[in-house]
Batch of 3 targets.
Target 1
Amino acid sequence: MLSNKHPNLGTLSVWAGEEEYLMQNATQVPVVHSVSFGYKNVDEWLQVALGQKSGHIYGRNTNPTVHVFEEKVRQLEGAEAATSAATGMGIISSTLFTLLSPGDRVVSVKDTYGGTNKLFIEFLPRFQIEVTLCDTIDHEAIEAEVAKGCQVLYLESPTNPTVKVIDIARLAEAGHEAGAIVIVDNTFATPINQNPLHLGTDLVLHSATKFLGGHADALGGVICGKKELVDQIYHFREINGATLHPMAAYLLLRGMKTLHLRIRQQNESALKIARFLSSHPVVERVFYPGLESHKGHEIARRQMRGFGGVLSFELKENTFEAVRRFLPRLRYAHAAANLGAVETIAGPPATTSHVECTAEERAAMGIPESLIRYSVGVEDTEDLIADLEQALNAIVL
Ligand SMILES: *Cc1c(COP(=O)(O)O)cnc(C)c1O
């Protein structure tokens, strides 16, 4: 344990999980590729197998490098326990299939990540699990659905791609009154900006692929919360085999050492860029919780320490053709299906977050055809603004 009782989030980003040397006093966490762990002492092996002694048996279940990653996120989220998976979807599907059974009901919102939405509309119903998706920011409607009874209330805030904000404390209370397990996908906020467990939820999860890793070179997923729940999810994940690879865990750990620095810069840049875009004549609307005009601004101010590194905006010319002309003009942005990296990344939902959905489904979710999701990297803010300005100016000429 860290000697300081309440270290701050930056110190935790650097040190959490890494207080002890694992091998030969190496100061950096070793990448343990070994699939199995050997025991000369059979009694010790048995104790580890029975969970009476800490240790590792087989790599699909646990691994020392992966454990350090889980421990870092656990401490950043202020959780009792954490477990991981190979991807964000790996942890989301493991969680939902662990906690739900035929005849159960889950309440969620329309704006969840595209893959999560697919689980809700395509896969869970095949197992006789009833799914109700509410309008994302209609808190009364969500409360009413939850009050009818459900086993899981699944939330995401801010959402992808229009960065809507949900009042987590309010809905956690509603969920608990109905006896539901309340889960939040905290990928967009990161533990630097928001800790859903402190707002009363039972579980918080991340696609570590995004901001946690921050360098777009490793996939991963992680969930934290009550030990009793996390243990059940771990048990399902060790059986379904969606295990986080030790090399990916190492890359995620390395990225997380600068999490607080990156997020601080991205929060600051995103707000300036959102203000710039709001004043540009070619831009119809900007979605960013840091803007006073954003519907969820007051809630975001209450529950977040920063507004995050993702914003989206709609072009005045609301066609995919406008996106086709605009995107290639950006010099400092990968046109790619990712977010949360050190490089700026821009893309339309049709090819990124909602690639799994049809154009009609996107329209039903209120996602305009000319929407561009812009994940701010750690480049200098003025360079990003200049880049956006030249690309926006060019599409009107
Ligand atoms: C990317 C993402 C996911 C899925 O994560 P993968 O690591 O790609 O499986 C889940 N939720 C949100 C909010 C995401 O952005």
Target 2
Amino acid sequence: MTERDLSGIRSYHMPAGGWGALKATAVAIAEQMSAGKAPKLLLQTNQPEGFDCPGCAWPDKHSQSTFQFCENGAKAVTWEATKRRVGPEFFAQHTVTELLTWSDHDLENAGRLTHPMRYDAATDKYVPVSWNEAFARIGHVLQAQTDKSGVELYTSGRASNEASFLFSIFGREYGSNNFADCSNMCHEPTSVGLPKVIGQGKGSVSLDDFDQCDLIISVGHNPGTNHPRMMGPLHDCARRGVPIVVLNPLRERSLERFADPQDPIEMGSLSSTRIASNYYQVKVGGDAAAFKGIMKALVERDAAQPGILDHEFIAQHTHGFDAFRADLEATSWEEIERHSGLTRDQLQEIAGIYAQANRVILTYGMGLTQHSTGAHNVQQATALLLMRGNIGKPGAGICPLRGHSNVQGNRTVGITELIDPVMFDRIEQTFGFRPPAKPGHNAVNTLRAMSSGESKVLICLGGNFAIAMPDPERAGQAMRGLELTVHLNTKLNRSHLLVGKEVYILPVLGRTELDIQGGVAQAVTVEDSMSMVHASRGKLTPASEWLRSEPAIIAGIAQAALPNSRVPWAHLVEDYDRIRDLIEKIYPDFHDYNARIRKPGGFRLSLPATERVWKTPSGKAEFLIFQGLDEDPVYPDALKLTTLRSHDQYNTTIYGMDDRYRGVFGRRDVLFMNAQDMQRLGIEHGQRVQINTALNGETHRCLSLTAIAHDIAAGSVGAYFPEANNLCPLDYQDPISGIPCYKSIPVQIRKVSAEA
Ligand SMILES: Nc1nc2c(c(=O)[nH]1)N[C@H]1C(S)=C(S)[C@@H](COP(=O)(O)OP(=O)(O)OC[C@H]3O[C@@H](n4cnc5c(=O)[nH]c(N)nc54)[C@H](O)[C@@H]3O)O[C@H]1N2
Ligand SMILES: Nc1nc2c(c(=O)[nH]1)N[C@H]1C(S)=C(S)[C@@H](COP(=O)(O)OP(=O)(O)OC[C@H]3O[C@@H](n4cnc5c(=O)[nH]c(N)nc54)[C@H](O)[C@@H]3O)O[C@H]1N2
Ligand SMILES: [Mo]
């Protein structure tokens, strides 16, 4: 007899959204906030005079003032605005060793950080420290570093443009270009891959394009959970009869059907709208092969019926098509089928739907980017659009779905490890110092340098670096070896507990809170997924009187570390308009910054590809060939593990233990498997299995989970992050963009016997 544990595993038959979403919102409010406060707060989310939702980077029509309901946005807001507190009494009661035994959910659920804290090794506890003392010590250790390039500065994408810019100037004046960003784990293949093909590292569509498109291709994203406000446009398009073609190994409920909580008819009649017109369960890691198949089919159709491809656009606007077509013609259908997991007929069918549409938007998320071929995948998706001229015209274009609400903005205002001579010249002209010439570290190289002892200091502007990264063991060892670690955060997380010699937790104001400087309420600015920049104004009384804003804390650290700084830190922090005036000097695209953010909705940064201006070396859009088909030619037939977000989590923040739409309740220790794969391996629904990374030399990476039969493509398995990060080797990354491969890890799976 095998033991099976199916507790909390049950089918969920409802559509995404609907009453389930309203109920979950009510529960989130009841658990975190006093009921009176919440409705008013939620009504201020994404309104012209309110704050930008800290949930995701999906844009809003800010000029309108209708409230857009969003369950997971509500969770993000109430989680920040919680009534719970983690103050000095909390830390006095718990040693770091004890807190390490807590779950990620329990750590953050303890509440908002209220005081600056310093780790005391003698008692193994965090103790309160004054702001001045913390800044003085941090400044002292920073000044004492002989190798300034051994200081690492990490940014998580919730930080505003103002905070990110000050952080980037501080680090560069100090002497380090080490600006790792959560974008290195997220959309780096977009930032690196897109400029090579269309001359810009950002998407090309705006919200209005969704009103005009006649086909949407959705690849590797789960909007009902991660970009819920996107469900509005998807729902509208579906109702307009726009076909929506989905490529995703899992059948995600929100891509199947959705009931709009703002639609009285759907809510009243318990009906819903189908979202995907065609759903294709591509194999994990099979996207490049699938794109090649669709494009091969298009080439074949065009040979039979010229005009399927947009030859005029290709001739006038692109470069490299003949070689690209020759590669498609030389690729066999058998290989395409084997690697994509889709049949030739299915791929032909997609090509047929695509060939009939004239204004096509292709949207994508982590399912496409977090691969060892992430940049290639993004480029293949773009090539598909280019073949029929679907970039740079109304209703068409490429739409990467960014993660954190300001991750795109961080990068625009200087959070990059790369050397940019134009930016460096402007910094020199503006401030009178030149940033160091040595290129910095991205996220993976940051962890490598910390782990080898080359880097000794880590300053984190938000986030949970050590837990978001692959290879928790190595991250733990790296964190424990540091001389100084500084965390600017709203909540307690596990990175705080991986203590080195000297550690500070500095509590920050959140996006929802009033930020008063020089007696005046300040606004910060953020850039959404569609390059719209707008203001965000917090409204709530801060969680504690000791909190400081991110810009103020960065200024405090900078003043202590750089006594002869050329930057007027205190003056800048008194009025954030002054910070924006400087951003405009370094990045001229922000001209008239302060005037333009005062208009409802803000302004859009320039996107040359939308005008069919291609900022590539050839001056044209490029067709770049992806050699071969498989992202993992060494282990093509191994099962491929993908790591996923549940419906109740925000990255490493675990709001709760349910994943409603996937039918998992009260637990996260599951491995989603295809029923045929289970049968082949003799594994039963609910049985405990051991998963090993199958990469050479990585066999020590293992994890035990409960296998459950799920509607997932054959050859693919799925587990939750961050629990499964132990199975992700740090060195398994995309050589072009440096992103860790979180989504397609070759694994072996075996049963764990009941006696074991
Ligand atoms: N509520 C909430 N909102 C969030 C976040 C959150 O954690 N919670 N995180 C934010 C951040 S930082 C980000 S980056 C975004 C992430 O948003 P998504 O990109 O939606 O993130 P994932 O949950 O990683 O899921 C990706 C989807 O890709 C599919 N997939 C997995 N492997 C493959 C593959 O090989 N090929 C294809 N085609 N599909 C695949 C999965 O089945 C899943 O549906 O969301 C942001 N918004
Ligand atoms: N296996 C696997 N690993 C992954 C992924 C995956 O799909 N699979 N996804 C990757 C992706 S896309 C990303 S973006 C990274 C996420 O990496 P990070 O951005 O580093 O992690 P988060 O979990 O978003 O950070 C949570 C912490 O942010 C802090 N915080 C919240 N709001 C604020 C604020 O306003 N200011 C400040 N200063 N702090 C704040 C809180 O203290 C909280 O503990 O994870 C990556 N890791
Ligand atoms: Mo992300």
Target 3
Amino acid sequence: MRDVRAFTCNLCEALCGLHVTVESGQVIDIRGNPDDVHSRGHVCPKGPALRELYHDPDRLRTPLRRTPSGFVPVSWDEALTEIATRLRAIQREHGRDAVGYYVGNPVVHNHRSALGSQLLQAVLGTRSRFDPNSQDGNPRLFACMQVYGDGLAMPVPDLDRTDLLVLLGANPAVSNGSMMGLGDVRARLRGVRERGGRLVCIDPRRSETVTQFGAEHLPIRPGGDAALLLALLHVLFAEGHVDQERLARVATGADTLRALARRFTPQRVGPRIEVAPEAIVALARALATTPRAVVHGRLGTCQNAFGPVANWLVEALNVVSGHFDREGGAMFPSPAADVGPLARLLVGNAYARWHSRVRGLPEFLGALPSAVMAEEMEIAGPGQIRALVCLAGNPVLSVPNGPRLARAIDQLELVVAIDLYVNETGRRADFVLPAAHVFETGNFDVVLLGLAVRNLAKYSPPILPRAGEVRDDWDVLSDLALRLALPHSPSLRRWLHRRARDVPERLIDWLLKRGTSGLTLARLRAEPNGVDLGPLVPSADARVRTPDGRVQLAPPALVADLPRLEAWLDAPRPPLVLIGRRHLRSNNSWMHNLPSLISGKDRTALHAHPADVARLGLAEAARVTLTSRVGTLEVPLVLTDSVMPGVVSLPHGYGHAEARDTLHVAATLTAPSVNDLTDELLVEPVLGTSILNGIPVSLSPAPAG
Ligand SMILES: Nc1nc2c(c(=O)[nH]1)N[C@H]1C(S)=C(S)[C@@H](COP(=O)(O)OP(=O)(O)OC[C@H]3O[C@@H](n4cnc5c(=O)[nH]c(N)nc54)[C@H](O)[C@@H]3O)O[C@H]1N2
Ligand SMILES: Nc1nc2c(c(=O)[nH]1)N[C@H]1C(S)=C(S)[C@@H](COP(=O)(O)OP(=O)(O)OC[C@H]3O[C@@H](n4cnc5c(=O)[nH]c(N)nc54)[C@H](O)[C@@H]3O)O[C@H]1N2
Ligand code: SF4
Ligand SMILES: [Mo]
């Protein structure tokens, strides 16, 4: 029997509604659901590829154990019993922190994974916890924690009503929006210009948001955002564009911020970041005079030397220019199921409660920067990491200096991966446990619904039975947690595990009922196209949690980093720096095993500006050698003026060649991992966020042959 089921794609923040056609347990077809309240039929190529993912012969369907002759199938009970026994023994002998725990990006995209990851963390109690936020959004979370008193209080652009959207280091044409959930991405982005508004992209690269959506492009030197933002603030203050009365009502620290910005005039900053001073002045005036305008900073503002400062200043700029908590400006979503109270209970505004053992980098929200993983594994002493549990992650490809991390992981006593595949990290594991496909798990996007540009709620119950022996993350993690916590009471443990099966759904139901939307999980089950809860509404009064209830425009922890910014402004520039690049058909280090997504022309070459290529005498080279402190890569070269002079660009997430036996399709891609070149010692000092953009490199012709 053929059946069409509505399901929400959980691969990115766009949360597209899908129509999944299923017949006899086979996925026949996937397309956009035209009736979805959020995405209105839009999908990108990755959503329909969930069909190939479901049927991928390389997808893990049984737990594996590593033997001297390779991986062999093992029963769940045998695997989990041994894992729990060995983890307990390691923690008993060497302390809790001897077990490292890496929680990867997909965990944020599923309620069962997210809750399971927290439960296992609670039982492991390890301070050696890591996640990709230190390669990604930590600077934004920290900035919001400082400015609004709550790291979860993150305003998003009120995209449907804005007339000027300034994007800093964001490329929603490809990423489909990040820290802003854009259903129907293309129509929403087009909408800004169709109603006479402007899109501006500030980016070292002329991105697809410029070429496909008519955004105006202002190139900027990688890392220049913080200085640019101070110059914009300077113009607003100096030209009297600030509504002092309103500002004093909602914020503190305006005078300090004004005084700080005075040192960053457009004339001083402009030449250093390669943005014309006139363009800075014009942009500041446009922000001041457009009633509905907003600045949104994203990944490009985070992965550099001044991420925390830049992200603070984005928030400050929206507040000072009068666009905070207003229609068409930066507004807080009102999620139907608000995880805020729960998250505050679990981690709160935690920062620097402990530091990494070797380099002394601070904990943030319960995790240490991933850049210290390798050294914490390598260097002996109390607290050395001796085992790793890797949940839905691939740090060997996603963390700077992946090869060093791979060598360190190879030396561990026990490595466990929980994943859909045996990826480049999992192939180093002693056990790989097969996670379920989202169609087998169901999904409520508990975190990302809180970042959508329009309020909505959607729940997708599982639509397919589990293939083979796969188990969803909650099932596995709650089982493992109970085995760790109750080693001597197997029947109690089994009873609790059975009882806990639908705890994630009961929790969502409870969160929904606590809210004001009137929704329940049962009601959402009956609304497969989702429930629209209306446009964003002003809510700063409820969301700002600073002690005096006002926005903090000059947080001391961030102000303290400004002398370093000034020194950077005046320091000589490296002649060539490397930045990243994403593609619509790729998703970080995975989904490269799906033929429909990797087909077509190669997208992984190094992009370099013709002026640099000529300067370096590489005009005839088809392949080049790229060198950093950490390593050397040989890559194909493409000349393009889409990158600014002095900047080259390479995508991340590749480097699958060694996975010939477990990722048969991905391994045919020859592109290396850019994180073989990025430097684990390059981190910003406030949080230890990896600097993955703007790293110094040199280029030379590749050796012949
Ligand atoms: N197709 C696809 N979609 C994805 C992903 C994917 O891998 N593929 N990944 C998902 C994830 S995990 C995330 S976090 C989001 C990220 O989504 P976005 O935040 O939109 O990030 P990117 O698409 O990487 O775009 C970042 C932009 O910043 C620019 N940039 C680099 N350095 C600087 C700088 O110093 N200053 C400024 N102003 N710009 C700079 C880059 O050229 C790039 O255009 O995307 C998500 N969506
Ligand atoms: N140089 C450079 N490095 C980067 C970036 C960059 O722009 N440049 N971007 C960074 C960013 S923003 C991010 S978020 C990180 C991502 O880095 P990671 O989170 O370390 O890795 P991913 O590539 O997202 O790999 C996710 C893994 O989870 C598996 N998986 C998918 N769904 C599930 C599930 O439901 N359950 C389980 N158990 N497993 C699942 C996939 O098969 C895959 O192996 O990379 C970071 N690294
Ligand atoms: S944009 Fe693509 S990957 Fe993102 S939710 Fe929609 S279909 Fe999925
Ligand atoms: Mo990310």
